[in-house]
Request: fold
Amino acid sequence: MLKLNSVNKTFNKNSLDEYKALDNVNLHLAEGEFVTVIGGNGAGKSTLFNAISGSVLCDSGKIILDGQDITYMPEHKRASFIGRVFQDPMRGTAPNMTVGENLTIAYMRSINRNMMGVPSRKEKDYIRSRLASLNLGLENRMNTKIGLLSGGQRQAVTLVMATLVKPKLLLLDEHTAALDPASAKTVTYLTRKIVAENNITTLMITHNIGSALSMGTRTIMMDSGTLVMDLKGEERKKASVEALLKLMTKYSSNTYRYE
Ligand SMILES: Nc1ncnc2c1ncn2[C@@H]1O[C@H](COP(=O)(O)OP(=O)(O)OP(=O)(O)O)[C@@H](O)[C@H]1O
Ligand SMILES: [Mg+2]
Reply:
């Protein structure tokens, strides 16, 4: 479903700040696979997502999604079939627009219709029903400006926005990291539910190793722009949080060693 072949990205080429953020990344995801992504700060996780979603263009390599070469496709075109939720609950929404308006725009974008267009009665009912399925009562807040919702409520709405029309790929970049523990738990629960119910191919970055091992069926680790671990099946079932933390610390200490 998703294939990254030898993807490379260097920032600030030919300057003192030159930095290879993605170093020959090869990654294949099967349809419906839910993969968690871990790795220390600066490992290249978000850059990987940026390359897939098109906000960063890679220098070489290929990115194929659902048989289509999207390596150099503009970001706005990919946005119609790649859903993305960020750490910052304000990102990806228009804070001064209402919950209903934000959802409508997301829906129109996903079906490639004029974003300022008006959905039909049936479509409006569908959007409301998706919001109601969160069980947070947000279907009664359709006319509230989204910026006035709590961080957890906004992340829940953003999750619905990203999946109103089943995306070919869902990218979750530490989307619960800025939330209080109770809200993080709710959004984690909703993530599991939405991904499972719709069988969405998903990549989820998290610094919570426990979540990384308990969600999805495969966990990859990045360090210095490369994939350093790919854990699935029995091996993953046996893996402990402590062992992965130890591995991550080992890589980070290598990265930050000054010689
Ligand atoms: N647009 C950019 N221009 C220059 N350097 C960048 C850019 N984006 C990322 N980098 C650099 O690439 C490296 C990887 O960054 P990235 O954001 O992918 O890390 P990450 O694994 O997501 O880390 P974190 O866990 O802190 O979010 C870092 O050294 C970062 O400074
Ligand atoms: Mg990041």
